[in-house]
UniProtKB/TrEMBL annotation:
The keyword Ribosomal protein does not apply. The lineage of its organism: Bacteria, Pseudomonadati, Bacteroidota, Sphingobacteriia, Sphingobacteriales. GO terms for biological process: response to tellurium ion. InterPro entries: Stress/Tellurium_Resist (IPR051324), TerD (IPR003325). Transmembrane segments: none annotated. It comes from the Bacteria. Residues 1-184 form the TerD domain. Keywords: Tellurium resistance. Pfam families: TerD (PF02342). This is TerD family protein. It comes from Mucilaginibacter robiniae.
Length: 191
């Protein structure tokens, strides 16, 4: 049976191949289409991305170590009917040795221009699935915790004593994707 996680709750992974499913349902009638984007930030012990290629999103769907793969952008939220909108698959055995943490962030594309925020999005969640069995391991539903935020760190995988663990973060920001890139990457970004 899957574990329903609460904000801040942590679990041991104990698996190598997992999928991170992220889902959401924007409210209708807000005037503009919603485009939510899931990203994975692979960061090192200094809490920085070791190289640009370790930032995984719709424009860079595979990490250079072959450990992380993004399913691609779902610009309308229409990829699912109640299921995952975007998926990130991970083989923890292949993760570059410099990487000690993988953050999963979802931002609203052009939120400022479209005047959109998480108060207009419902049923947001992150879930972990065992890739070998297809069974859901754990799920964290954001609930009604967010209103004015435009970017949310849903969860993170982190390595402690050689073991990978998952934490349901649930940290909201009134920021866009550029904010997270500036926070975790100090090199020049080539677009």
């Amino acid at each position: 049976m899957a574990i329903n996680l609460q904000k801040g709750q942590r679990i041991n992974i104990g698996l190598s191949k997992i999928s991170i499913g992220l889902g959401w349902n924007p409210n209708e009638g807000t005037g503009y289409a919603f485009d939510l984007d899931a990203s994975a930030f692979m960061i090192d012990g200094n809490r920085l991305i070791p190289a640009e290629e370790f930032f995984i999103f719709y424009g860079n769907t595979d990490s250079p170590d072959g450990a992380v793969h993004h399913s691609g952008d779902d610009p309308t939220g229409g990829n699912s009917d109640g299921g995952d909108d975007e998926t990130i698959t991970i083989d923890l055995a292949k993760v570059d040795s410099r990487v000690t943490e993988i953050l999963f962030v979802v931002t609203i594309h052009e939120a400022l221009i479209r005047k959109q925020n998480y108060g207009q999005v419902r049923d947001s969640y992150i879930r972990l699935v065992d890739d070998n069995s297809g069974q859901e391991i754990a799920k964290y539903e954001l609930g009604e915790d967010f209103s004015i935020e435009t970017g949310v760190e849903f969860g993170r995988l982190y390595k402690r004593d050689g073991q990978w663990k998952f934490e349901a973060s649930g940290i909201g920001y009134r920021e866009d994707l550029a904010f997270f890139l500036a926070k975790y990457f100090k090199g020049q970004i080539i677009k």
